[in-house]
Amino acid sequence: SIRLPSSPDDNLGNGALSLLPLAGLLEFGEGTDYPGFDPVLNIPNGAAVAPQSMLPNGMVLPALRARRFIDRTMSYPVDQGSISLYAAEYRAQTTAGETVPWEGPSTVASIREDGRVALFAIPLLTDLSGSYNLEGADGDPDAPQDAIRLILEALNFSR
Q1: Which residues, listed in sequence order, are joined to residue 109 by a DSSP beta bridge?
Q2: What average pLDDT does the segment 13-18 reach?
Q3: Which helix (H) or strand (E) holds 7?
Q4: Beta pairing partners, 50
Q5: What does the alpha-carbon distance between residue 132 and residue 53 come to, in Å, rounded to a whole number?
Q6: Are 45 and 67 in contact (CB under 8 A)?
Q7: 3-state secondary structure at position 89
Q8: Alpha helix (H) residue ranges in 4-155
Q9: Could you say which DSSP state residue 9 is in?
Q10: Residue 67 above 90 pLDDT?
């Protein structure tokens, strides 16, 4: 999953950031684009995780939703040369302690247009119980695995 570093300087020179299909990590606090927010984004139980685009190979991804409250993940902005595949319906916490709909970047899965690298930033399983975090928007328990399979196929992984 995407998590904020304790200090933005921790990512200086991190080669993975130039490889991954993202434009960078969100920063919160004074002097950032999100000064009125704590670095706490959550996906509520039942929130949409909606497909944004087709895969580079033309395949369509299934609509998903959260099966439980999902915390400790982070959305991210997508750079030029990448395709946003899924966006989540995040809730944010203001520095005043109010929980509000997140209106910043909400991408949680993306792929390079050349189909060489993809990122899916929501863990499919919970850390503690191993239960699924996501399901199909229609309740299909196999939809998240189908989405990952389709993304891997777009990356030319063999079955």
Answers
A1: 86, 120
A2: 55
A3: none
A4: 87
A5: 24
A6: yes
A7: coil
A8: 15-19, 143-154
A9: G
A10: yes
